[in-house]
Amino acid sequence: MLAWIRTAIAIIGLGFVISRFGLLLRQIEPKSEPATGVHFSTITGATFIAVGILSLLFALWHFLHTHHEIENDAFRPSLLFTLIVVLTIAGVGVLLFIYLLVVG
């Protein structure tokens, strides 16, 4: 559970940094108009924060479920849980990679 908490804090922190760094880049950009509206960095940062919160909730559910199974001597490791986490993180990584290639 502690590993999940550390990971969620890191994901939430990264989301905040992405959002604020995008704002900083927009503010120092030489333009005559002020930066307004919702930008990709804000959406990406908010998404990371939401994923961090959801991972905390999912980790709590998984912990309680596993604890219940251990107490009842019915514990079996879940391959599906591991696959979902790995594929989700890989998918986000691929989308960010494509974005960086396209936008520059």
Describe this structure in words.
With 104 residues, the protein is mainly alpha-helical. It has one domain. The chain contains 3 helices and no strands. The N and C termini lie far apart (37 Å). The model has no long low-confidence stretch (mean pLDDT 85).
Outline the fold blueprint.
Layout: H1 2-28, H2 40-71, H3 79-103
Query: What is the number of beta strands?
Result: 0
The topology string of helices and strands comes to HHH
| Global outline | elongated
Determine Rg (CA atoms, Å).
18 Å
Mean pLDDT: 85
Q: In terms of per-residue confidence, which ranges show pLDDT below 50 for 5 or more consecutive residues?
A: none
How far the N terminus sits from the C terminus, by CA atoms, comes to 37 Å
Largest sheet: none
Estimate what percentage of residues fall within beta strands: under 5%
Helix/strand structural class: mainly alpha
Quickly count the domains. Answer: 1
Give me the number of helical elements. Answer: 3
Helix content: over 70%
Keywords: Cell membrane, Membrane, Transmembrane, Transmembrane helix
Domain DUF202: 2-68
InterPro entries: DUF202, IM_YidH-like
Protein name: Membrane protein
Give a short summary of the structure.
This is Membrane protein. This protein has 104 residues and is an all-alpha fold. It is built from three helices and no strands.
Sum up the structure in keywords.
104 residues, 3 helices, elongated
